[in-house]
Amino acid sequence: MDNLANYLTSINCNICGNSSFSIFKESNLKSSIDINDYQITDSNYGLTGLLIKCEKCGFIQSFDSNPVLPFYEKMIDVRYEETRDQRAIQAMKLLQKVKQVKMEGNLLDIGCGSGILVEEAIKIGYHAEGIEPSVWMCEKAQKRGLPVHHGVLPHPSIKHRFNIITIIDVIEHVSDPMKLLHESYKLLVHDGILLVVTPNVNSFAAKLVGSNWWHYRIAHVGYFNKRTLMLALANAGFHKIFIYHPSWYFPLDYLYERLQKYFSALKIVPLPAFLRRSTIPLNLFDSLAAIYQKRA
User: Fold this and answer.
1) In contact, 232 and 15? CB cutoff 8 Å
2) What one-character-per-residue DSSP string does 38-91 give?
3) Domain harbouring 161, CATH code
4) How far apart are CA 145 and CA 87, in angstroms?
5) Cβ contact 85:116 at 8 Å
6) Is 132 exposed, middle or buried (0-12, 13-18, 19+ CB in 10 A)?
7) Average predicted confidence (pLDDT) for the chain
8) 80-101, pLDDT tens digit by residue?
């Protein structure tokens, strides 16, 4: 433990640069991890490496600094595509908030998956495109005729500026979130806006469920609360427009399957077939959606 304490002083907070940490959550990793652990629909809730908390700003980050990009490049997630219709509703709801601030223009969705938000944005008049590291996800998007680039930022095919950039449930997967925000800043026009959505580690739901919270996952290497998200965005050169708690939309069978992680008795109570594909709106107030504008 003394060696660990000494090592903690040799690394820096990914948000504020401070080098003083405390242990937030002990590792409970299995012996090895694989590509499936990085699926968007992964349900191994509560499974993480060692998480450490910055003593200055409170940001929580993974102690393990191993690169995650190779896992995302090879990631396949069939269940994600099966819930495409519901995720499209979610994307449209987010875009309706964007519309309140920026009615039209060029939009870039970073970490766009199979292009669900890109597709919805095009439907309502935005000139939208996306960027995604998963080869499989890019192929799914391109089969639908969607302009999705394979890779991460900076990207040689993305040279022009955007009026809107969206980063939806992505920043918590990134080992250098400030770099992502700075790259986004450079790609925005002078009055461009940024929408960031991420789980809130200080939410009531996170505290209620504790170490088994559904957002404690191997794929999540950074955990924000409202304060640290606002600090990161301000440090990247953005100013706040508004912050709210977004809702999500899922098929009932998808939610029922995940509830069984917490209530095992549900496994012996089958869900009626006619209810399985019903779409359920869900807002547990444990996600933050921040719309910020680039400082002129």
Assistant:
1) yes
2) G-TT---TT--S-EEEETTT--EEES-----HHHHHH---HHHHHTHHHHHHHH
3) 3.40.50.150
4) 18
5) no
6) buried
7) 93
8) 999 999 999 999 999 999 999 9
Domain tally for the chain? 1
* Residue 183: C-alpha distances to residues 3, 130, 145, 165 (Å): 35, 14, 26, 11
What is the spatial distance between Cα 187 and Cα 191, in angstroms, rounded to a whole number?
11
Q: Is residue 203 part of a domain?
A: yes
For the entire predicted model, the pTM comes to 0.94
Contact 168, 88 (CB under 8 A): no
Residue 73's φ and ψ, nearest 5 degrees, are: -65, -30
Which tokens belong to 37?
Answer: 């652990």
Q: Alpha-carbon distance 91 to 198, whole Å?
A: 14
Cβ neighbours for 292, distance < 8 A, ≥ 6 positions apart: 193, 194, 196, 233, 238, 239, 240, 241
Does residue 233 lie in a domain region?
A: yes
Residue 63 falls inside a structural domain: no
The range of the structural domain enclosing residue 81 comes to 69-294
The answer to the question of residue 20 being in a domain is no
